[in-house]
Amino acid sequence: MEIQWPLVIFSLLAGCGGATIAFIGVSEILGVGKKARIPAAITAIALLIVGGCASVLHLGQPANIMAAASNIFSFSGISLELIALGVNVIVALVYLLLARGGSEAAAKVVAIIGIATGLILTFFVGNGYVMESQPSWNNVALPLAYLGSGLACGATLFAALVGKDEEGQTKMRNLVLGSIAIALVTFVAYAVTTSLTENTVVLFWVGAVVVGCVGSGACVWFSQKHPLALWAAFVCTIVGGVCLRATMWLLGTGFLSFFATASSRMLLGA
């Protein structure tokens, strides 16, 4: 199947943005990375908006966009993604306002709520592809792999924004390494439960696993001496996320017009 790049970009940026919001909440609980929270919230909002625009580009025609908007509360896989996207933008905006001039206690509560909303979005952007018509996608391991990818991206991004701030560096590094380990486990689980083809073996094992997980983990480890290595870790997780999603599309059977298929099967309530 042809790779649908607008949806690759959407799921990657939305997952990263949602996970970044989640890590803001985690940092509030652990009391680390205080200086990075506001930049992280702004970055997360930007990622979600750009990702949402990429999703809209995939719909193509204005009629398709209007149909999707009119059926937003059908609670299909696609509508759940869009609802979760909007909720996370609101959560990040409210947190940003409270953190910059409101109650610190209220900001912490909103940030903790963001842990749930962020992780839900990161899972939903993968769960929307689970369907019986695509055997290689009809597996809970797929959205879990998307969740793992989002966690790795969000963790490395937040850690990179923390940068040279020595406060809680050990906790932060361990948290990031743990997130990358989760991504590795979910990636391998997806490969084990799905039959990779000749044109996806290298893409998945080298791109998603070696670069996306092992490479990013190594960069995080080296960041003990060179903090800028955290940005390299983030780049590695992005590469891994793209390779994971490209693998999924290449494993699909036949040509799939996502909007047309969703509409014909009433996934959008049409």
UniProtKB/TrEMBL annotation:
Keywords linked to the UniProt accession: Membrane, Transmembrane, Transmembrane helix
Keyword Membrane: yes
Molecular function via GO: dimethyl sulfoxide reductase activity
A single GO cellular-component term on record: plasma membrane
Protein's GO biological process: anaerobic electron transport chain
Domain of life: Bacteria
Transmembrane segments: 6-26, 38-60, 72-98, 105-124, 144-163, 175-196, 202-222, 229-251
Family annotation (Pfam families): DmsC
Stretches assigned to coiled coil: none
Transmembrane helix found in the keyword field: yes
InterPro entries in alphabetical order: DmsC
Protein name in UniProt: Anaerobic dimethyl sulfoxide reductase subunit C (Anchor subunit)
Lineage: Bacteria, Bacillati, Actinomycetota, Coriobacteriia, Coriobacteriales
